[in-house]
User: Which sequence fits this backbone?
């Protein structure tokens, strides 16, 4: 009889697990999102590009500034490389070393012009993106040219600077 009493007691306790609890626990039923398929959503239609004459003027002006700054940098680079050759092997603080450092600082000032133009165009691109406007090809092309020129100039400055004695 104790065996049947234990079995009855076990059955009563086991059935307690099936009782409904209206507590704060989440349901284990499938959620709405789980009933959706895994298909990719349809791509939105491309937004047609609308000409922006005001932006075209700003991009053209930035391109002109880039061309001028690039030419100025290239012309100045010849003089800076000559000053760096004269300072090669010279001790820090020597006359040739100081002249090369001054020339290199002037070259860095010319690099700053390209950096400023790029920063201005980046601001225009961010403003367009904030309005959810699509990329503007002329703007993106000029930004790419500016980044390439800036990289060229930074590389030249780094190369010349590494050839001089450290301060």
Assistant:
């Amino acid at each position: 009889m104790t065996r049947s009493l234990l079995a009855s007691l076990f059955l009563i306790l086991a059935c307690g697990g099936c009782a409904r609890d209206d507590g704060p626990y989440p349901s284990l039923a499938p959620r709405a999102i789980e009933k959706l398929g895994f298909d990719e959503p349809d791509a939105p239609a491309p937004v047609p590009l609308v000409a922006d004459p005001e932006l075209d003027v700003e991009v053209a002006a930035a391109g002109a500034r880039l061309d001028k700054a690039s030419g100025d940098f290239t012309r100045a680079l010849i003089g800076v490389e000559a000053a760096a050759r004269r300072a090669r092997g010279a001790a820090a603080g020597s006359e040739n070393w100081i002249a090369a450092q001054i020339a290199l600082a002037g070259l860095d000032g010319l690099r700053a012009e390209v950096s400023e133009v790029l920063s201005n165009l980046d601001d225009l691109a961010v403003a367009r993106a904030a309005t959810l406007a699509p990329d503007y090809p002329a703007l993106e092309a000029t930004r790419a040219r500016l980044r390439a020129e800036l990289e060229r100039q930074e590389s030249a400055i780094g190369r010349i600077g590494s050839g001089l004695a450290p301060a």
Q: What stands out?
A: The chain has a mean pLDDT of 89.
